Each structure stands twice: as C-alpha cells, then as structure tokens.
Amino acid sequence: MIGATPDDVPILCESQPTCWLCGRSGQITYTTLNDTVFGVPGTWQMRGCQSCGLLWLDPRPVQTELPRLYHVYYTHTTPGPGNQRLASICQAIWRQIWSDLLGYPPAQLPIMYRIAIRMLQLIPAVSDSAILEVMGVHATWGTHLLDVGCGNGRYLAQMRALGWAVTGVEVDPIAAAQARTHFGLTVHTGTLNDVGFPPNSFDVVTISHVIEHVDDPLGLLRESLRVLRPGGRVVITTPNSVSLGHRWFGAAWRGLEPPRHLMIFSPHALDRLVRQTGFQRVKLQTSGRLARSIYAASRINQARVRGIAPPDDKKIRVKLQRYLFQSVEEFGRLLLNDIGEEIFYIGVKPL
Fold first, then answer.
1. Domain map of the chain by residue range?
2. How many angstroms separate the CA atoms of 100 and 113, rounded?
3. What's the pLDDT score for residue 247?
4. Residue 253 in this model has a pLDDT that exceeds 50
5. What is the pLDDT of residues 72-128, one digit of tens each?
6. pLDDT score of 24
7. Of 346 and 330, which is predicted with more confidence?
C-alpha cells in the first residue's frame, strides 16, 4: 500500500517509471515523502528526469482515485474578512500597478501616491505580486476568461470586478459550490474535457497551480487550445522543480506536496509541453513572489523530518530569514532566471 485516505481504504496506484514528457527512465529522487500539508496518510516516492527536469510521483494514484486526495483542502473554505483597511490599501496599490502595466482603469489616487506606487514597481517582488495576482492578464486581451481549476472562485471574482466575463471549471464539487454560493459565479463541476465548451469560446484560459495536479497535462492543454479563439492566450503558473527553494530544502520543499502534485515541471519541461500542444510561447519566466511563504513552510517541514520544534514565525529573527531568502532568490534571478519558486508562462494560439 502506497497511501490511504482518512477512511483507511488503500489508494489504488499505478507505476510510472519513465518520464511522462520525454520517455526516459526516471531516477529515484525521494523515497519516503509524507503529506505534511493536509495529512493524507502513506509514504510516497518521486522520480526525476535528468534530461528535461520533470519530477513526478511513482507510483501515482490512478485518475479515479484523485478526488480522495482532497478530502481536506484549502479551497473548501472562502477567504475571511481579514484586515479590511490593509486589504483596501493593497487593492489600491494593485489597481494602480494593473493600470500602469496591464491597461486596466487606474485607482483614483492623489498624484503623489501614484508616483510612490510607480517607484514600488521597480521592486521585482512588488511588481511580480501585482501582475500574478491577476495572472498577468492584460485588459486588451479580450472579454471572456475561463479559469481552469478555479477553486473557491476568489480569482474569478477579482477578474469579474475588472470587467471580464468569467467562467470557471473545478473538479472538486465542494470548492465549486463555494464559488457559486459565495461569489455567485458560473462554475462547471468536472474537468475541462468533461464540460465540452464550443471551439473558440474564450479569449483567455488561466491555469493557476493546477497543471501539477492533473494526470494528463497534455490533454488539458490541447483542450485549452481548442476552446480558445485564434490569438487567444493560455496563462500558466506552477511550482518550479529547479527553484532555489527546492535546491535548498530538498525533500522538505513545500512545492513537492505529495500525493497531490503528480508532476512538477522545470521551465524547460513546461515550455516543451506547451509547445508540443501547439501554442507559441509569449513569455516564460520564474517569480520569487512566493519565496517567503515557501521558505516558511519548508522550514516547518524540515523541522518535522528532524523531529525538532518548528521555527516560531512570530520571532523577528525568523521573519528576517524569510525576507533574506526572498532577497537572495530575487537577486539570483538576475543571474539565473530559472530559480524562482514559481513558473509563469504565457502561450498564444496561432492565428
């Protein structure tokens, strides 16, 4: 038995010894991984491809077993109210950056505030966070947006507020129900292939931290290509298998997340996959916007493996370590673009 859900019924798995992308034999990279995030019991193994940088689960749960890995998941709840004043300030900053860089209407701010925000844009962590908050979707790209794996609908609600006609697809019925109930969104339950949208239905398809969860990413991208109009764009974000965090923390890296992450791509592997589908590459880069949170979660994983107390996030020293890690990663990206924690990819459907 490789793993079991909380009902203790074994998860049916299948062998995957060769690289799904290039067919080469995979090298065993990790053998005793545990689900430290949502507690699916069991021990899991990952292989890596020395040619393209892909990491994958082997053995991996068969497709019909995947819903059992999400018995508990963060998309089953909607965001709380939080600090409304801070949220309003952040939203105003983001709106100005979206206006400057992505063509959306600007926030109504005094001139000095706008100048200050434009200075902030020079900091990569700030501009990346703002751009990826809306998946880099430009206001001029069209009117109809599809989010695949939309979760509880927070992103779709954001894009609707910016003027997009939005639709979601979500395999998790609990998350899909949250999106409909809390935000009043149109969300189809199932996979993109299950829904069967007409060809050329959308201007943009966004796939945010989803492709690592699916057992057939090539099929997902082919269907994305079909439902996009000519000239439409697919936007993908996903963990980066060659990130600084993975190199630093190894088996404790938060981005591994077994058994839900079936495949973890390198920039090279993702580019190869998307091009194989038929898209033309517009942008391929990595981002360090998640570096602090990845560092914090990976430190906790590392402490659990070593059997020691996890670091106290309230201590100034621990907070400084997180910012230092992000600074190192941001500086490193100037020399090696591929070391950010997250891959950001834009492809276009040929005319």
1. 13-75, 143-348
2. 13
3. 95
4. yes
5. 665 656 655 556 777 777 788 889 999 999 999 987 888 888 888 888 888 888 888
6. 87
7. 346
Q: What is the CATH number of domain 143-348?
A: 3.40.50.150
Strand partners, 239: 342
Residue 209: Cβ within 10 Å count: 17
pLDDT at 125: 81
